Amino acid sequence: MIKRTLKQLADMAGGTLVHGDDNLMIQGVSKDTRTLQEGSLYVPLIGEAFDGHQFVEDAVSKGAAASLWQNDHENRPAGVPLILVDDTLKALQQLAKAYRSQLSVRIVGITGSNGKTTTKDMTASVLASTYKVHKTLGNYNNHIGLPLTLLQLEEDTEVAVLEMGMSGRGEIRFLSELAEPEIVLITNIGEAHLLQLGSREEIARAKTEIMAGLQQDGTLVYNGDEPLIEKVLPELKGQNGMKATRYHRVRFGANKDNDLHPSHTSMDTAGTHFKIERFDDVSFYIPLLGFHNVINALAAIAVGIHFGISAAKIAQGLRTCAMTSMRIELLKAPSGLTILNDAYNASPTSMKAALSLLEELQGYKRKIVVLGDMLELGEQEVQFHKEIGRMLNPQKIDRVYVYGKLAQQIFEEAAKQYPAGRVHSFDDKNRLAQAVASYAAPEDVVLVKGSRGMKLEQIVSLLQQLK
């Protein structure tokens, strides 16, 4: 993490130091009094319902050595070392950009509608086979989280793998220009943020903003199965502020015309095996289920190749990667029931991928789905839920349980093609879990999938208690 004197931090953040020793050494930066470390700089951010300035004295009492302070706030705490700035958020971002410029770290930027966290985890694991790597933790992928992630980097970090999220246009551009990556990766273009952006084409434009900070002669790795990416890429040339005038392209995906595409894919009970033509003598394995995760792995492989890592080490990195929780976790209830927990998020693309995975699984007596609302899909939300209902196949999935107002559309469409009694709708999670528990046997598998706001992990928790 950042280690600088108080005066150096003030200069880097564009602020003025008061009540502090110029040479006081500061280690780390925090915006949260609950998690700050001894000797760190506290950053009092301001939100719609909170103002961190109220907690500056509390931060100091818990070990913070100094704090930022916004000039328009009165009642500065007496005796507390302060760096006065016009805007604490902008000062945090400026501090992170200055620190990044002082490091020799190589940056990988990752975005996409689905799979970016999984891809980030796999990419970091591949790179860690050869380099000292730091990756975005949790959901620190926005205009606050990414600067904090940069400030967490040790001086000797060789590669940082940074996830870049967004809710609207301009946000990924800002993050990319802040991080200045040498390689950027776009996993796919889905339907998330349709509510804000209106169309998948506009989402593609927002995602390709990750090119804004790409270094000269850098590399763009992208999903070649998605035509919208190549459709909007030429538009970037006309945008002011594009750092790179020359860059390389690597395409990955299921289609054989991509630079990297999979072959000989198969699943066992805990993961997926596959090969790629470029390294036909190497077998790859990921501790994740589903063909869609193989596609994500191809992106990580492309980054490994960019960094000169051998195929054998790439394969080892993929095999041993530690995944962020709640992304299709395979869990076992004491009863023996298998639970696929994919309750972290849901969009039509990820929902279809999860259902395809369930259909591909072998070795289970019956297959059951518990599906919740897919949120923030805009005007087409009803149609998207109907499509999911229509794709459910009674020959491959035995029972369907839904929860939520929008998921009722899944129920109505699925009920048209399923025999009576095999599709169920609930407005109470406990009753739904009890219904699944009364039907499911130890030899069965249950997929639980819905948007984060539906909190379907509560159903997963109830099913895990089955004995």
Outline the structure in words.
The chain has 467 residues and is α/β, with parallel strands linked by helices. It folds into three domains: 3-85, Udp-n-acetylmuramoylalanyl-d-glutamate--2,6- Diaminopimelate Ligase, Chain: A, domain 1; 103-319, Mur-like, catalytic domain (UDP-N-acetylmuramoyl-L-alanine:D-glutamate ligase, 3-Layer(aba) Sandwich), CATH 3.40.1190; 329-464, Mur ligase, C-terminal domain (Protein-Tyrosine Phosphatase, Chain A, Alpha-Beta Complex), CATH 3.90.190.20. Helix content is 33%, strand content 20%. The chain contains 16 helices and 22 strands. The chain has helices spanning 6-13, 56-61, 88-102, 116-127, 145-152, 171-179, 194-197, 200-207, 227-232, 291-306, 311-319, 348-360, 381-391, 407-415, 429-439, 457-464, and strands at residues 3-5, 16-18, 25-27, 29-30, 41-42, 66-70, 82-85, 106-111, 133-135, 159-163, 183-186, 218-223, 247-252, 262-267, 272-276, 284-286, 329-332, 338-342, 367-372, 399-403, 423-426, 445-449. Strands 9-10-8-11-12-13 form a six-stranded parallel sheet, with helices on both faces. A six-stranded mixed sheet has the order 17-18-22-19-20-21, with helices on both faces. A hairpin with a 7-residue loop joins strand 15 (272-276) and strand 16. Helix 3 packs parallel to helix 5 (145-152), helix 4 packs across helix 10 (291-306) and helix 13 packs parallel to helix 14. The two termini are 46 Å apart. The model has no long low-confidence stretch (mean pLDDT 92).
